[in-house]
Amino acid sequence: MNYALVAKLISIILGALTVAFGMSLGIAYTLDHPIVHAHAKTGFTLSIVITASCAIALLILGKTGTNTMFRKEALAVVGLGWIVASVFGALPYYLILPDVSFISAIFESASGFTTTGASVLSDLESLPRSLLFWRAITQWIGGLGVVVFFVAVFSFLGAGAKVLFSRESSANSAELDTARIQQGVSRLLYLYLGLSVACTIALHFCGLDWFESVTHMFATLSTGGFSTRSGSIADFHSPALEWTIILFMVIGGTSFIPLIRAFRGDWKSLLRSTEIKAYYTILLFATIAIALFLALNPFEHGIHNIIRKSAFQVTSIMTTTGFATEDFNQWIPVTHIILVILMMIGGCSGSTAGGAKVIRIIVATRISFLHLEKSYRAHVVRPIRVNQENVDQAAQENVLVFLLLMGFTAILGLTAIAFLEPSMSFEGSVSAMIACLFNVGPGFAEVGPLNNFASFLDSTKIILSLLMILGRVELFAILVLFAPSLWKRF
Length: 490
Hints:
Strand order of the largest sheet: 1-2
Helix content: 55-70%
Largest sheet: 2 strands, antiparallel
């Protein structure tokens, strides 16, 4: 293990957080009430001092390290990077909000960076705007990943950047179609920035002021779901705003690599993508199904109103954004089943969405049908094809192992939640686990869209925070941290 290189890269992550703290401090001086929210300036100043000091210390420790990176260092940086970002990102919540414990602050921070959207905070309108800005920008940073951001900016990693990107992103680094991984990741960043500007302008034209346009852009494009309003998007009472957010949530859940190719003129790349076609098909049919069930409710009126409600919640849940315009807790149980399935499927690989990812569900389904056929045609040989290409045996095994590990993690997480929260209903425990592990945010029962996670014990919040990070980095980068052989020097 190249400890010096790991320390150097973690220092860069802390440096990026320091810059984001500085931006939030600027908001505190310009938009916060100078007397009522004076403590926000102190909180962000202390956060800058603490984080910058640790960044400098790690940079000094890592100055002797070589820039050669292998899989071990990549996994360690990704796993530790998300944990470190979540812990240091908790500082503003803890230093500014007197009623928030450090564990609750870590939960809120982890939820932001992992774009989960689960929260322990209420009465958001009373919070300093600088803290709301910090809460929102953590999602935007986490959307493409802290690691991807600094790979795009710091090119000294050389070939090691490809290893790092492939461990952080669910996309295949080979799909970047470039010999220089930094150039490929930079294109992702440029696309992300371009979509961010477009989303901000569109939200402003829908009636939001510039502050709320920016903060809701952070939450929408990153599929994070933190709003500046306690009632989420429903507080705005704007159908135009809801349709605009639906559009950008769909884009956020779409694989960015085909989008890059499309914006460069190759629009057929979207049509060639098996995953994107399946993703849009699932969104369409789930929207129709839930709209039909809502139409059975005598209190629901107007076809446009029903379709909009259905489309918004289906898109919000499948892209794991977690915005709410309706208390879907009150919908009939069959809609809950549909939404839970969408939570677990999630968006496309290489997108900002969470979940198991559509491509894995496609591959696993085709493997299942192939083996079903082999049960009565033992000698049949038929390749598994995705995007008109064969999926090799190693890739098939990776999909199955990931889904198996995800299942084990879900069972262990559910058991821990049920043990620590014995008074919680079964539906609440299950949906809390799914909402955090699959980075969705809201669930059902005690953690429904009108509730939050403030009532959980600190020990439960630690478990849920770990589940959020596990889901965001797709298990391996965190699980390997517990393997002693990872840390040995060779």
